[in-house]
């Protein structure tokens, strides 16, 4: 059941939420609770996505628990509901503003896959939606838990840039899903513009936005370690994007590993704040 929620993909969202809370000067226990809440939210949302995308994923990822019959649709709904309820239970102890962010996240994660919006089938809007739930809402929630209120625009600037970065870089996941998306008529951005144009948008957008993200975060961290590691990550990220053109699954796996290094550097820098 745990595999169903794709915990390896939930980790970035959880870490970004924890980083935001640390930037709001939260203690470690609160930062851990923020990370746990967003981890559970992502797990629940990923299961909802698997349920709605069953026929697409039967082509793209037949090895997934739902597609291979290891988990029933009913069990998947129960698991998703449990994840959402557990995240709400954690949020209850972190204040009303954080709880409100969690409720918005739940609605957004459902509307990504389900009616009436089904954002994942609306070309580039899917990328915008993913950016919001990957970076903007975790950033907003992390600060809300630490401060007990919404953060200032200045505090949110690194996370806004991070969100725009994800608009572009999340195109990478569509390469591995392209065959099933086309076969089932799923109108993703990559299906809309084609692999060549999609690759250029992903590469140029991520290469332009990533240094902006690093610079804005380092205005807060003010250390040499973070930009140095980030420079190496940028090279690795570009290489993984080129691999994606030939092998979407392998390129996405490489990207996740490289990006985890960046997130750990981000977390380490946030932990070192006075």
Span between termini? 40 Å
Total domain count: 1
Helix content bin = over 70%
Q: What is the level-2 CATH architecture name?
A: Orthogonal Bundle
User: SSE order in H/E notation?
Assistant: HHHHHHHHHHHHH
Which fold name corresponds to the CATH topology?
A: Tetracycline Repressor, domain 2
- Binned strand content: under 5%
Low-confidence stretches: none
Q: How does the helix and strand content classify structurally?
A: mainly alpha
Mass-distribution shape: globular
What can you see in these coordinates?
- The chain has one domain (3-271): UbiA prenyltransferase (Tetracycline Repressor, domain 2).
- It has 13 helices and no strands.
- The protein has helices spanning 7-23, 28-52, 54-60, 73-92, 96-113, 125-147, 153-169, 172-176, 178-183, 189-193, 195-221, 225-246, 248-271.
- Helix 1 (7-23) packs across helix 6 (125-147), helix 2 runs antiparallel to helix 6 (125-147) and helix 12 (225-246) packs antiparallel against helix 13 (248-271).
- The longest helix is centred in the last third of the chain and has 27 residues, at 195-221.
- The termini are far apart.
